[in-house]
Automatic annotation (TrEMBL):
Superkingdom of source: Bacteria
Protein name (Swiss-Prot/TrEMBL): Uncharacterized protein
């Protein structure tokens, strides 16, 4: 099995990246694992032209296909997202918007291979799980339109800096053991 762990934060070395590293280390003993960071790719905003609704292709030329290649490679996709104003970071939202050619709400649409499983991990600085659930719902909504089966989720509250991730490491490892 091949696993893609995606850091949905534009910060390559913060708390989200620390969680990605724990997930990577935990799963690499059982699976072929890759990790990517949304900020390593040049993704342009969706222009809203709807050309992809007729052609299944975007008219823009950027790195969106490089990420889709990683999705295609993977059997399991794990999205790890922090909270930015009670939702996913803008960079990740731009990626989701640009996946419209693969979205199952219009025909024709491009597709990635079927049978993929999706997992979500959300983190936030405050103590309220409601915000983590909102982030996870955004990810799972995206998975649904990409026809990625939503399998499990983990919300981590009160995580602001990567040092706070160490206190939650066992919880993250337990989550990984279910994958």
């Amino acid at each position: 099995m091949r696993v893609l762990v995606m850091n949905c934060s534009p910060v390559r070395n913060g708390a989200t990246a620390e969680i990605v590293n724990i997930v990577f280390d935990c799963l690499k003993v059982r699976y072929d694992v890759r990790r990517i960071c949304i900020d390593d790719f040049d993704i342009h905003f969706c222009k809203g032209c709807r050309t992809c609704h007729n052609t299944s292709k975007c008219i823009q030329h950027d790195d969106i296909n490089k990420i889709i290649e990683q999705y295609e490679w993977a059997d399991i996709i794990i999205s790890v997202s922090p909270s930015y104003w009670a939702d996913i970071p803008g960079q990740f939202k731009v990626f989701i918007d640009r996946c419209t050619p693969w979205c199952n709400t219009h025909e024709p649409h491009a597709t990635i291979s079927s049978g993929k499983k999706g997992y979500s991990i959300a983190l936030r600085t405050g103590p309220n799980m409601k915000e983590c659930n909102r982030i996870i719902e955004s990810i799972e909504h995206f998975y649904g339109h990409m026809e990625i089966e939503c399998c499990d989720r983990l919300g981590l509250c009160s995580v602001e800096y990567k040092e706070a991730v160490e206190e939650r490491k066992n919880e993250i490892i337990e989550f990984c053991n279910t994958i």
